[in-house]
Amino acid sequence: MSAQIAFYKAFVTAKSQFTKIYKNKVNPHFKSKYADLDSVLEAVEPALHANGLFLTQRIDPQENGRMHLVCSLIHVEGYQLDSTYILPDLTDIQKMGGALTYARRYAVSALLSVTADDDTDGNHAKQSAAKQEAQSNKLPFTSKTEAIAWACKQLKIGTEEANGLFDKVAPDPQGKKSMPFYQEVMRLSK
User: Fold this and answer.
1) What is the rounded CA–CA span in Å between residue 183 and residue 139?
2) Domain limits at 162?
3) Same domain as 90, residue 177
4) What's the CA gap between 18 and 31, in Å, rounded?
């Protein structure tokens, strides 16, 4: 049997023996759970080792000055499968350490085809885009009263006139339609 066939047979067997990967950490930014590198390794290494497989990871400097993380799954008969992860170009050693830990976890997970974090199905990307849009459209007021005061200051007009403008442009008494009012005041202030 060739070393490559022996590798794949061992890998298929080991993969069927992987234990559950416990998502033991929380990403506070996305409020999602993930498994740290130790948790991933605890779930996969016993099965890999029992089947003559082991993982290595090394940093491989490139001619252009960039660094690559090379993750290898090696079988005792000599065949290996490599995965390369391009590391970010960082000069701050602490940031590089964090990026390296992140890269090591993702490289192992990708090479072994295991999941180490919550499947967000793109939800975080969508939420992030919505959050950015909301922040870019952030209003300088949160109520009709604040909107009127803001308009008075921006346009140098009286409360009654600002109130009339608000009612004309955004007739919702709770100020939920205050974006058109904001846009109208900004247009008038030019």
Assistant:
1) 10
2) 137-188
3) no
4) 26
